[in-house]
Amino acid sequence: MKVLIATQKPFSAAAVAGIKEIVTGAGHEFAALEKYADASELIAAVADVDALIIRSDKVTAEVLDAAKNLKIVVRAGAGFDNVDLAAATAHNVVVMNTPGQNSNAVAELAVAMMIFMARTQFTPATGSEVQGKRLGIQAFGNVGRLVGAKAKALGMEVYALDPFLKPEQIEAGGAKPVSDLNELYSGSDFVSIHIPALPSTIKSIGYDLITRMPKGACLVNTARKEVIDEEGLEKALEERPDLKYVTDVMPDNYETLREKFGLRVFATPKKMGAQTAEANMNAGLAAARQICDFFATGNTRFQVNK
Predict the structure, then answer these.
(1) Same domain, yes or no, for 255 and 287?
(2) What one-character-per-residue DSSP string does 134-193 give?
């Protein structure tokens, strides 16, 4: 079987070497397409591949049409909204993610962003401490639990909401459960978002929720840009000069937000959650192992297009 890494934003050299070792060690052919400039290069490259490892690269219906031998796509990371799942299913292609591999990196970034904003982006202005503050976590999966654990170690009060978990499961993860989004936002000095971009969540966080937050609160988004109603965010920040927003997924209206609100808003130039050497390695190697296991045993444990 031919396994292709296709990454506009490449893995580290060490990760690529590790992936190659796993793939060739299992008797498969290895290929790489890195830093490609246009989707046409990906379309050409997938013509004869059986498996595909990607990061934030888009696997569209057009890509799947071109990949006549493709059997599996593994997204090295947790999110998978960059893959057309319906088209993959129609082409009998299994799509997997690698949950948990980037979680610590994202969690550390979320906590770092809270401190960064509490300390007024490390300018000489007087800031505040996170100890004793209330943290609300929206979605209490792998990342959310790690954020909660790190926040508790800093002396924060941790609350969480997850529609897929029972209250006792949230408590077992170290947080206090809340009943709904209104309670989460109105009772939190910081809210950390960890929801995927789905039809039900896109633009779900906007003016109404943000303006429920207490005085001086900060919204932290290391999830997806699409879950924020950016017009509603701008309106909320305009009406509430005490609120702050920090993210590693730059809003479309970032220049306007930065010009209007200065140090109350910050976005990293590129998505940074998984940008650590450890996460890079973990996710890449996990993707390779999952592909080899799929070919050897048919294991589809992490399939997301069932």
Answers:
(1) no
(2) EEEEES-SHHHHHHHHHHHHTT-EEEEE-TTS-HHHHHHTT-EE-SSHHHHHHT-SEEEE
Domain at 95, CATH number: 3.40.50.720
- Cα maximum dimension of the chain: 61
Do 11 and 41 share a domain, yes or no?
yes
For the chain, state the CA radius of gyration: 20
Task: Give the Cα separation of 203 and 227 in Å (integer).
Answer: 4
The pLDDT value recorded for residue 259 is: 97
Cα separation of 75 and 296, whole Å?
Answer: 19
The amino acid occupying position 247 is: T
Q: How far apart are CA 221 and CA 193, in angstroms?
A: 5
Same domain, 232 and 288: no
Q: Read off the pLDDT of residues 76-109 as tens digits, 9 standing for 90 and up.
A: 988 898 999 999 999 999 999 999 999 999 999 9
Virtual CA dihedral for 60, 61, 66, 72, nearest 10 degrees?
70
Range of the domain at 28: 2-101+275-297
